[in-house]
Specification:
The protein contains 9 helices and 8 strands. The chain is of the alpha+beta class and 263 residues long. It folds into 2 domains: 6-74, Arc Repressor Mutant, subunit A; 81-260, 2-Layer Sandwich (Beta-Lactamase). Strand 3 and strand 4 (118-125) form a beta hairpin. Helix 1 (6-27) crosses helix 3. The longest helix is centred in the first third of the chain and has 22 residues, at 6-27. The radius of gyration is 21 Å and the shape is elongated.
Length: 263
């Protein structure tokens, strides 16, 4: 049998130990788990466990509640990966739909779905000559109320549910260009009047976003498409052209139902 180089063996051992820690955190994710408990559960030295956990925290696979409980929980990035896996069928189905919109509009197209108090980016398609400077990470989560697609989804919801979500996220809005709960509500009211969500330099400077919903067979909003372009390009006339293109593509797509997604 060919022996692995020592450096490979050490790397595999570290990966194995990190996976042990991740599994142990997952088993206690409801209440969280302390460092000493993790070391005991995995048989690792406390210093080794701490070093590996610090790396997992940096990668957002694990979260550490440094202020209150001093416990470890599963991280945002891991949750995002799980969510993406759940929606893989929907993402595959809508990839060509997004690409067709991008070819016609020359904008950047995002596909968002609601998830608890947030929206998650299931997919993004960029035009080959699209301007740089936008975060295009698949799996990115934003508070409901941030972004044009999010506004479109809130506008399509019953008023009570929309208000509950905006209130729940109120403390998070300030991270996005000083956004306020009042401003979010103003955008929702505008979206109900126009039929689409609109944001100006909310998530990125110099960019405009417009969002429209995709509905299920019951007429409920299941997902949203957000088109993003530069302020210079997204003139009122061009924005109307883009919205017409998206509406036509949404009509051609037909209803979708995320209730049938694999778990």
């Amino acid at each position: 049998m060919t022996e692995l180089p020592a450096i490979q063996t050490k790397g595999a051992q570290s990966l194995h130990r990190a996976m042990q820690l991740l599994a142990a955190v997952g088993e206690h994710n409801v209440t969280g788990i302390r460092l000493t408990e993790l070391a005991q559960a995995t048989g690792l030295h406390v210093a080794t466990a701490h070093r590996l956990l610090s790396a997992l925290v940096r990668e957002q696979m694990v979260a550490f509640d440094v202020h209150y409980t001093k416990r470890y929980f599963l991280g945002l990035r891991l949750h995002s990966l799980v969510d993406l896996a759940r929606y893989s069928t929907v993402r595959a189905r809508l990839r060509d739909f997004l690409a067709a919109i991008v070819v016609e509009t020359g904008a950047i197209a995002y596909l968002y779905v609601p998830l608890l108090n947030d929206i998650i980016a299931l997919d993004v398609v960029e035009y080959p000559r699209a301007p740089r400077g936008l975060v295009s990470e698949i799996g990115r989560r934003l508070p409901m109320g941030v972004g044009a697609g999010s506004i479109a989804l809130l506008a399509a919801m019953p008023d009570g549910r929309a208000r509950a979500l905006v209130t729940a996220n109120a403390a998070r809005y300030d991270e996005y260009s000083g956004l306020t709960e009042t401003a979010v509500w103003r955008s929702i009211e505008d979206a109900r009047a126009t039929g689409y969500g609109f944001t100006l330099e909310q998530v990125a400077r110099g960019f405009i976003g417009v969002g429209l919903v995709i509905r299920n067979e019951r007429g409920e909003a299941e997902a949203a498409v957000t088109l993003v372009g530069t302020i210079k390009r997204m003139t009122p006339d061009h924005t109307e052209v883009c919205l017409a293109i998206v509406r036509r593509q949404v009509d051609a797509l037909g209803p979708i139902d995320l209730a049938t997604r694999p778990l």
